[in-house]
Amino acid sequence: MTVGGAVSLVVPEGCRAWGRRSRTWAPLELATVKVLVVEDDPLFVDDLRVLLPSWVELDWSRTSSEAITALESGARPHAIILDWCLPPELADSDKSEGLALLRKIRTQLGSTIPVCVLTSLPRSEVGQLSLENGADAFFHKAESLKPLIEFLEQRGQD
User: Fold this and answer.
1) Alpha carbons 47 and 139: distance in angstroms, whole number
2) Which superfamily does 31-157 belong to?
3) How far apart are CA 15 and CA 115, in angstroms?
């Protein structure tokens, strides 16, 4: 297979294409992964759109209420990326809005959609609370995107 017209590469068995951004081979069975991003920072969402592989399709909600409306109206993403520090709507002002939304997604909406919590706060406390309250994964925003991409890749194979 020729990539970019100049280099001849052997495609590994079970793979279909070379990812220009990820610099990895995409598995054959990997389909588009639809992700609901609940994040109040538009610049961070823009960064995700640029940095995540092309097989990730993002739908963006700025607030908890937008995310709830999307989920109640039938949106069924493969995964949810949830910011821990959203503007307060569901939570008391001294509590985490991300935690309140996570609890609502799991209890009142009864959703089993995998949720990955992201934050820029200190890792241990937020990570433990996230996982104890139904999150499937927790990542710090300053970390490499590789663990997040692996988390989303798994959702595409489920």
Assistant:
1) 16
2) Response regulator (3.40.50.2300)
3) 27
